[in-house]
């Protein structure tokens, strides 16, 4: 099926009435297209989550996503620019990238914009997927956050805006301030677990740096689009470019 034909089916709402056999054929289509696709740089807006590739099924329940639809990386990567209607906003779960899947797109509407909502989402994802991470950068506001959660609890968190904060035990790859050969406690009093890593670096050490996805990235399977509202479907959503 061509992109134009698929776009037409989505826009008319026919996809919402397909039976199980038709949906299986569409997933086979996405799998076939994805098998010949080359990975390329991904640029989530705002923040994104990462979960182990083999455990991604838990994402749909953790974030209460509905009406999943199989797509390639190219078809889902610009999820933030996709049209929406009546509150039905699409979220993109990428194909597996070096063993991880990234989740992004319209997360303010899906998760919320409060601190407790952000942390609650990464904890739920880790509960359903075993492990989950969150990354957020806003250079204009000076915000920089990365979080690692396991089995429903936050294990390690770095958050910086006006003043940086470190929660949990340092991870093996972190460079701690107190271990730096130039650290002098007489001139600077560091917190015991104060590290130096920011989200742009931490994502690459923890899972996948989306800006470094490219020919050397191992990509497996296809991605998914899913909606944040039940019972609305894709009719009127021109999802593919």
- SSE order, one letter for each helix or strand: HHEHEHEEEHHEEEEHEE
Instruction: Give the strand order, joined by hyphens, for the main sheet.
Output: 2-11-3-5-1-6-7-8-9
Q: DSSP helix count? A: 7
What is the overall pLDDT average? 82
**Weakly predicted, low-confidence segments:** 1-6, 237-241
The general outline is globular
Beta strand count: 11
Summarize the model shown.
The protein has helices spanning 3-12, 20-35, 58-62, 73-76, 107-110, 115-129, 199-206, and strands spanning 47-52, 66-71, 90-93, 96-97, 100-104, 131-138, 143-150, 153-160, 165-167, 219-220, 223-227. With 241 residues, it is an alpha+beta fold.
Protein model, in words:
The chain has 241 residues and is α+β, with helices and mostly antiparallel strands. It has one domain (3-166, 198-227). It is built from seven helices and eleven strands. The chain has helices at 3-12, 20-35, 58-62, 73-76, 107-110, 115-129, 199-206, and strands at 47-52, 66-71, 90-93, 96-97, 100-104, 131-138, 143-150, 153-160, 165-167, 219-220, 223-227. Strands 2-11-3-5-1-6-7-8-9 form a nine-stranded antiparallel beta sheet, with helices on both faces. The radius of gyration is 19 Å and the shape is globular. Mean pLDDT is 82; it is low at 1-6 and 237-241.
């Amino acid at each position: 099926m061509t992109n134009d034909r698929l776009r037409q089916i989505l826009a008319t709402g026919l996809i919402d009435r397909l039976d199980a056999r038709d949906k299986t054929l569409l997933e086979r289509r996405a799998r076939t297209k994805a098998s010949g696709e080359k990975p390329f740089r991904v640029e989530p807006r705002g923040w994104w989550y990462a979960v182990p590739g083999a455990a991604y099924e838990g994402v749909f329940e953790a974030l209460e996503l509905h009406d999943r639809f199989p797509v390639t990386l190219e078809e889902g990567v610009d999820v933030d620019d996709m049209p929406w209607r009546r509150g039905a906003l699409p979220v993109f779960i990428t194909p597996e990238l070096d063993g991880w899947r990234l989740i992004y797109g319209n997360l303010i509407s899906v998760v919320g914009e409060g601190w407790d909502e952000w942390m609650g989402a990464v904890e739920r994802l880790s509960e359903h997927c075993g492990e989950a991470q969150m990354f957020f950068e806003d250079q204009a506001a000076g915000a920089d956050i990365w979080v690692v959660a396991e089995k429903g609890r936050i294990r390690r968190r770095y958050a910086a805006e006006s003043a940086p904060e470190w929660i949990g035990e340092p991870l093996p790859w972190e460079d701690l301030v107190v271990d730096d050969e130039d650290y002098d406690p007489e001139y600077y009093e560091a917190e015991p677990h104060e590290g130096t890593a920011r989200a742009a670096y931490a994502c690459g050490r923890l899972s996948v740096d989306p800006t470094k996805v490219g020919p050397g990235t191992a990509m497996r399977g296809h991605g998914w689009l899913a909606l944040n509202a039940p019972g609305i479907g894709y009719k009127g959503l021109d999802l593919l470019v």
